[in-house]
Amino acid sequence: MKAFILEAYSKTGALRKAEVAEPVVWDDDVLVQIHAAAVNVLDAKIKSGEFKLVLPYRLPQIMGNDVAGVVVKVGSRVRRFKVGDEVYARPDKDRIGTFAEYIAINECDVALKPVTLSMEEAASIPLVGLTAWQALVEKAGLKKGQKVFIQAGSGGVGSFAIRLAKHLGASVATTASGANIEMVRRLGADIVIDYKKENVEDVLRDYDVVLNSQDAATLEQSLRLLKPGGKLISISGPPDADFATELGLPWFVKLVMTLLSAGTRRKARKLGVSYSFLFMRADSKQLAEIASLIDGGKIGAVIDRIFPFEETNAALDYVEAGRAKGKVVIKVR
């Protein structure tokens, strides 16, 4: 099968298109013929080696973390899916590889595709949908009437998180550049701050939750926006010891992450708020709940561009440049 593989960590190097063997299908796996795969900032970070301490892939590695397609084979113990099912998934972090024609995925990480979405639209959802769900529902416990600040509202995670937060009954503030302000307002944001013209601290205060996806300076500022008891969940770091424990990483990696997040956690304690890092995990049950929201008209897909499979590297370059509004998708089949 054709696939795009990472041969060496590099910020500037390209993935190589190659002919590789079709994946082995284990007893609990489904083999998915890939119709579409989304490109994420995570893919760029993996390619550059930024995550090699916590995601130590053995190169060469097929890249890609989002998929929508059709089940063409099932393992002997699979009971939830059959050949012909249209599915979507974020494969487990140890079994990525959606920039390809086929992928084998444990059935526990797969859900039926939302029936109201095309393959390209469905492929845009899993990683950002699970990230927003695990941040706002699991970690933050966001409730009706609370206030949440979601950074970068026009991005992949931000555009999904705004709509999920509104569904949960929260008041949403976000940031965007002038060209994207109307877009995030249409998504449901109550307060939109043009980060090129306004200081967030001049506008927001006493927030219950912040979803941080930006740099260290923005994170420190965001801690000050929270009211006492508020929660900051960061998907851009720094990682903490709880994250290392969740991944079962060695003690020395846990120590490193404890040190990396020490300053942020200390500042949070002084302000009477909490800090936690989120690296989303695959979860078919949550994907099924997200599919129900989508098919119920509560949330939809936001796609910027669709690239043909042959232009996978161009799609990755586009995402790395930070120009995407919503998601970028590769049409594989």
Word description of this protein:
The protein has 333 residues and is α/β, with parallel strands linked by helices. It folds into 2 domains: 2-125 and 302-331, Medium-chain alcohol dehydrogenases, catalytic domain (Quinone Oxidoreductase, Chain A, domain 1); 127-277, Rossmann fold (3-Layer(aba) Sandwich). Helices cover 32% and strands 26% of the residues. The protein has 11 helices and 16 strands. β12 (207-212), α7 (216-223) and β13 (226-234) form a beta-alpha-beta unit. The relative contact order is 0.16. It comes from Massilia violaceinigra.
Helix-strand topology string? EEEHEEEEEHHEHEHEHEHEHHEHEHE
Biggest sheet details: 7 strands, mixed
What is the third-level CATH name, the topology of the largest domain?
A: Quinone Oxidoreductase, Chain A, domain 1
- Unreliable runs, pLDDT <50, ≥5 residues? none
The total tally of domains equals: 2
InterPro entries: ADH-like_N (IPR013154), ER (IPR020843), GroES-like_sf (IPR011032), NAD(P)-bd_dom_sf (IPR036291), YIM1/Zinc_Alcohol_DH_Fams (IPR050700)
Domain Enoyl reductase (ER): 13-330
GO molecular function, one term: oxidoreductase activity
Protein name: NADPH:quinone oxidoreductase
Summarize the structure.
With about 325 residues, the chain is an alpha/beta fold.
What's the SSE blueprint?
Elements: E1 2-6, E2 16-19, E3 29-39, H1 41-48, E4 61-62, E5 67-74, E6 86-89, E7 102-106, E8 110-112, H2 119-123, H3 126-139, E9 147-150, H4 156-167, E10 171-176, H5 181-187, E11 191-194, H6 200-203, E12 207-212, H7 216-223, E13 226-234, H8 241-247, H9 251-271, E14 274-277, H10 284-295, E15 303-308, H11 312-320, E16 327-331
Helix pairs in contact: 3-4, 8-9
